[in-house]
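[Primary structure, fold]
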Amino acid sequence: MSRSLNWNASDYLRVGLIVAVPAVFALISEYFLSSGNLFALMQNFALVGLVALGLSLTMVVGEFDLSVASMVAVGGLILAKTGVDSAYIGVLCAVVFGLVVGLINALLVIRLKVSSLVSTLGVMILLSGFGYWIADGNVVPYFNFDAADALDAQIFYLLSPRINITIGAFFILYLVLKFTRLGRDLYATGSHRQAATMSGANTSLSLFFAFACSGSFAALAGALISISLATGSPTLGDGLLIQAASAAILGGVSLGGGVGKIHNIAIGVLILAALNNGLSLLGVSSAVSLLINGSVLAFVVIMNGSLSEFITQKMKKTASA
């Protein structure tokens, strides 16, 4: 009971949504709980989850990486260009490129004191142009179908190697944030950077780590989805920034920094994936789908604010009565 009292209203809301959203669609559509549809839902989790995970880390340290969507597209194109003989080499090249760009983003914030919104906006534009230059304005095919079959092979109905990679990334970062000094420094950096520096926290390392993860995870997501789709495209990441940011906020990550739990981010991604999957099954138009997504997100944001504190206090008083 004492552990449950540590939850706030937004935590209960998050759990309620992850139960209610699939339950509603399961009642409306007989296909929602089919193995094929649930596998497709998890495949979407694998893509958005990696991008949201890296973006969330930059939000935890009080910054924001606008370049993740463009990085997804460039990561896919690098895979298609360099992974002709070996998918492993293509993925490695994409991840290294994403890592380098992430470190550059961090360097701009740390050394030049440039706002991450400004610097990553510039990097986003540069990456977009770089992607169109690589592709020469066209879609780049990738003919390693064996790699695609292996990457998306179903494991126990709901999993695949691509999904397992995303789950593994969530698990590793969960351990880092919960049990290491670096994890504590990440939260301290986002809470109050100057005070964190004065107290001995390595804020520079925290920023480098967050942006490096953001860049490399986005590039990895792009490379993996390009293998699955057998193509790379400069427009591959369109819409992913909004999805990733929405999933992070649904997961309780604060735009002000210093707040965010890895398992809640995973829940946020799953809520968004289930919602969009169910709406797609029902044939809902993109405009209505955006409206519903925005309404859910707005409600969660409100619940994460002062209303959450008010409801939480009421719940504690009721429990202690």
About this structure: The chain has one domain: 4-320. The mean pLDDT is 89.
